């Protein structure tokens, strides 16, 4: 029986490498998104801690106006940074979705070629079986005619 060789094997291998690259890109994008999420959480924690500290400063009998103003200015900067970080996180989410779609496209391309390979392989197998059957039939006819 002849060995099956897929005519588009090199293309399939390229598609597999593209898929692997896109998986890696998606993983990187997801890691970046997670980093940005942790950064946002850290900012929220700092804001909460600042509110506690500011509340404590206001409750103390000795009011340090300079400290309270510094806290207030820091709170304003933190809130601005949080808004900016939310935008960064949303952009990271869009980037993840873009990479996910690219991966889905690469998977689809690879699967199309694999399906084609399976069909070609089945066709090859049927042809080889038919050829072998034809040879066996011919050998059987020769034996009968020789006898």
TrEMBL record:
Recorded topology in the membrane: Peripheral membrane protein
Predominant place of localization: membrane
Record keywords: Bacterial flagellum biogenesis, Bacterial flagellum protein export, Cell membrane, Cell projection, Chemotaxis, Cilium, Coiled coil, Flagellum, Membrane, Protein transport, Transport
Keyword field contains Protein transport: yes
Pfam families the UniProt entry points to: FliJ (PF02050)
A GO CC term assigned to this protein in UniProt: bacterial-type flagellum
Coiled coil: 96-123
Keyword Ribonucleoprotein: no
GO terms under biological process: bacterial-type flagellum organization; bacterial-type flagellum-dependent cell motility; chemotaxis; protein transport
InterPro entries in UniProt: Flag_assembly_chemotaxis_eff, Flagell_FliJ
Subcellular location: Cell membrane
Family according to the record: Belongs to the FliJ family.
The protein's name in its UniProt record: Flagellar FliJ protein
Gene name, Swiss-Prot/TrEMBL: fliJ
């Amino acid at each position: 029986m002849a060995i099956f060789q897929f005519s588009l094997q090199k293309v399939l291998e390229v598609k597999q490498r593209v898929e692997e690259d896109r998986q890696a890109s998606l993983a990187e994008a997801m890691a970046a998104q997670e980093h940005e999420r942790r950064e946002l959480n850290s900012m929220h924690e700092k804001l909460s801690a600042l509110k506690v500290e500011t509340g404590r400063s206001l409750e103390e009998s000795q009011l340090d106006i300079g400290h309270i103003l510094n806290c207030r200015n820091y709170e304003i900067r933190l809130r601005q940074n949080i808004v900016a970080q939310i935008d960064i996180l949303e952009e990271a989410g869009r980037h993840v979705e873009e990479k996910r779609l690219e991966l889905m496209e690469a998977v689809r391309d690879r699967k199309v070629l694999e399906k084609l390979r399976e069909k070609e392989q089945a066709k090859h197998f049927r042809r080889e079986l038919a050829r072998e059957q034809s040879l066996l039939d011919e050998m059987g006819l020769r034996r009968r005619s020789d006898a």
